[in-house]
Specification:
By secondary structure, the chain is α/β, with parallel strands linked by helices. It has two domains: about 1-255, TIM Barrel, CATH 3.20.20.70; about 305-375, Arc Repressor Mutant, subunit A, CATH 1.10.10. About 40% of the residues lie in helices and about 20% in strands. It is built from 15 helices and 15 strands. The chain has helices at about 30-45, 70-85, 105-110, 125-130, 140-150, 170-180, 200-205, 215-230, 250-255, 285-290, 305-315, 325-330, 335-350, 365, 370-375, and strands spanning about 1-10, 55-60, 85-95, 115-120, 155-160, 190-195, 235-240, 240-245, 260-265, 270-275, 275-280, 300, 325, 355, 360. A nine-stranded mixed β-sheet has the order 7-8-6-5-4-3-2-1-9, with helices on both faces. The chain has a three-stranded antiparallel β-sheet with strand order 10-11-12, with no helix packed on it. β7 (about 235-240) and β8 form a beta hairpin. The longest helix has 18 residues, at about 30-45. The radius of gyration is 21 Å and the shape is globular. The two termini are about 35 Å apart. The structure holds iron/sulfur cluster (SF4). Iron/sulfur cluster binds near residues 13, 16, 17, 63 and 97.
């Protein structure tokens, strides 16, 4: 059977964070209930096309999936199990925001088959959480973390952010250390820099000078600290912003970076199957109407060979292990040197990547990955 990953989008949040441009919004109970029915109908509609696949990973993302109660998550999981063939050892992750998941819900999630949590802490400093509009305080994170242990979750990711308003490298270090001093330690840490997205309240406040972000030098120091501190504590960096204890790399996200097949279910969810890319409608009414009318999505884009090569390189190079020279040739019937010879030589000369059986970004290359990856665009 062919491997498949599933992504389910839960687009609801208690309220919008100041920096957020994800597809998420506040909703009342009735809207959430309606959405779940539509999601179940979409599972029903889509699953028959994936009979020859076995699901290796499932990811509930958002939004805030932990706004769904235990019973609702159990219903969705039961439906997935009834409609898809799911591997016994499948990684089944769910995003949880502190302050939204009760112990009884966490117990139900675990019973329903969820075996990995990703908790959005972002910072251990309450003023910084407030500055970016998060709904929780650090203490609430601690309660969620210990409730997750009590519910039987052993595989837990924690999201941290750097370059936040008011953050210094010292206070960032404090957040890192608090996370590393948790008992037991999280198995995985994602550490991203805050990106100020156009159209968000944070962007407006920065432009108006109402909010000040750390200077670039301070930000670089936080970035360097992440690698240094986490490495010392036994976490391997396996992707530009992701660190794991050995054996705990996120299998689901690795599917994205290696261009495995994945099916997105829910509002705006993206899919890649056999080199066809598509996304569900991001407008609720249009999405609900199509699913209610049992209509398949018509707009699917088949990627050209050049687009596939570009993705192969710039997604694969995000991984510290890089991309396989042999796999490139097996996939495209042409050597990577033939297609990217000039780009490889240029960045090799500058010490930004190495080429042997694998093509990898060096540590210096990972620091400036966007600059290097832009050169892999063929058009
Ligand atoms: S919790 Fe996540 S998805 Fe929801 S508003 Fe905040 S950043 Fe956006």
């Amino acid at each position: 059977m062919k491997p498949l990953s599933l992504y389910l989008h839960i687009p609801f949040c208690v309220r919008k964070c100041h920096y957020c441009d994800f597809l998420s919004f506040q909703a009342d109970e009735a809207q959430v209930k309606d959405y779940v029915e539509i999601l179940l109908a979409e599972i029903d509609l889509e699953a028959p096309s994936y009979k020859e696949y076995e699901v290796q990973t499932i990811f509930f993302g958002g939004g805030t999936p932990s706004l769904l109660d235990g019973q609702t998550m159990s219903r969705i999981m039961e439906s997935l199990c009834a409609h898809f063939s799911i591997a016994k050892d499948a990684e089944i992750s769910m995003e949880v925001n502190p302050g939204t998941a009760t112990l009884s819900n966490l117990i139900s999630y675990r019973k329903a088959g969820i075996n990995r949590l990703s908790i959005g802490l972002q910072s251990a400093v309450d003023e910084q959480l407030l500055a970016i509009g998060r709904i929780h305080k650090y203490d609430q994170f601690l309660s969620t973390y210990s409730a997750a242990q009590e519910a039987g979750f052993e595989n837990i990711n924690i999201d941290l952010m750097s370059a936040l308003p008011g953050q210094t490298w010292e206070s960032y270090l404090m957040s890192l250390e608090k996370v590393l001093n948790l008992t037991p330690r999280p198995t995985h840490i994602s550490a991203y820099s805050l990106i100020v997205e156009e159209g968000t309240p944070l962007c407006e406040w920065v432009e108006q000078g109402k909010v000040t972000l750390p200077e670039e030098e301070e930000e670089r120091r936080m970035y360097a600290l992440t690698l240094e501190v986490l490495r010392k504590k036994g976490y391997d960096r396996y992707e530009i912003s992701n660190y794991a204890l050995p054996g705990y790399e996120c299998k689901h996200n690795c599917v994205y970076w290696t261009r495995g097949d994945y099916l997105g279910l829910g509002l705006g969810a993206a899919s890649l199957i056999d080199n066809n890319r598509w996304s569900n409608e991001s407008e609720m009414q249009a999405y609900q109407e199509r699913i209610s009318n049992k209509m398949p999505l018509s707009a699917k884009q088949t990627l050209s060979v050049s687009e596939q090569m570009e993705e192969f390189m710039f997604l694969g190079l995000r991984l510290v292990e890089g991309v396989s020279v042999k796999k490139f040739e097996e996939t495209f019937g042409v050597s990577v040197r033939e297609v990217y010879g000039k780009v490889l030589s240029k960045h090799q000369k500058d010490g930004l990547l190495t080429v042997d059986e694998q093509i990898r970004l060096t540590e210096k290359g990972l620091d400036v990955s966007n600059y290097v990856m832009a050169d892999f665009l063929l058009s």
